[in-house]
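Newbie here. two chains, one complex. Structure please?
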Amino acid sequence: MKSSEKEMDQGVSLSSQVLIEGLRAVWPVCFGYLPLGLALGVLAQKSGMTPVETGFMSLFVFAGSGQFIAVSMLAQGAGATAIIMTTFMVNLRHLLMSSSLSVYLGGSSRSRLTLFSLGIVDETFAVNMERFINASWDINRGLVVNFAAYFSWIASTVIGSMCGQFVEKGAYGIDYALIAMFIGLLVFQLKGSIYCITGLLAGTIAVAVSLVVPGNSYIVIGSIIAATLGVVIRRTLGRDRTHSNEEGVVL
Amino acid sequence: MNPELVVIILGMSAVSFVPRFVPLFFLSGKSLPTWFREWLDLIPVAILSALLLPALVVSGEPAQVDWLNLKSVVAIPTLAFALKTRSLGGTIILGMALYWGAGVYLG
């Protein structure tokens, strides 16, 4: 682990340095949440939710894709059990993200780990992982990333449900914000050929699975199979090299 | 607030929290086997790709693949820009602008 700011982990003080570094890492995500939150707010308003209810949902759930699906299910009149089960399935991928992050967060206090876990979503996960691997990063900076994203998500979904009906459908490339965000985040992860191979495998398997299995389970299935194949490939190709080191083996 | 919606939101909150909390809380600080660490190291790229590619090329109900569409074509210059600049903010802005512009241009 590269960060050695152990003393930070005990205090409650938040140095401006930590705040600035965290915000510098996360601002594009906050920016990208604006169109996404607006889009969700409009959908929520159309499904009969008030701005207050939309705000409560973002405050308690903070799961972009889960909320999109829940809101569209609400609009179709689905029941509570179906919506909650679907949210669970959609958010199962966070199990994998949380496990990956745990490698870098040893030595953090329990309360911080709990707070941090509240803010694990696709985007904060990718930003924090990139920083943990490439920069001097710690749980405090990670918390700034998570909570800045969290608050901007709440704000933009509420704004969307209040005034989203005035935004013309499809304007300003709103529908592309999430895809563009995934592309930008993916590039951070392409650290060597084994990462590119794993990514191609995961994408292809996910596409194939999505054609056969209904719902969103293709995300978890594709990721698990591809990461497993990636380890097998890395071990097979790397057999006659010196034994793989502890952190981030680059092929 | 509609009581059924309160139940839905609290239920969603619980099922969103557990998968985020359990691994982080119980695995951090533990020494994990090397193969598992290597596997976790590949999870980010795998998840992002598994989210991205189907979003680009799969659509419809029932789902079908369409390799060449506005989303997938716009993704090519967006990806090139991202690889060159490594700028997340710039990539989001460019992708949205290209997609919007292409939509307007193609009518």
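Moderator note: Chain B has four helices and two strands. Chain B has a mean pLDDT of 92. Thread marked as resolved.
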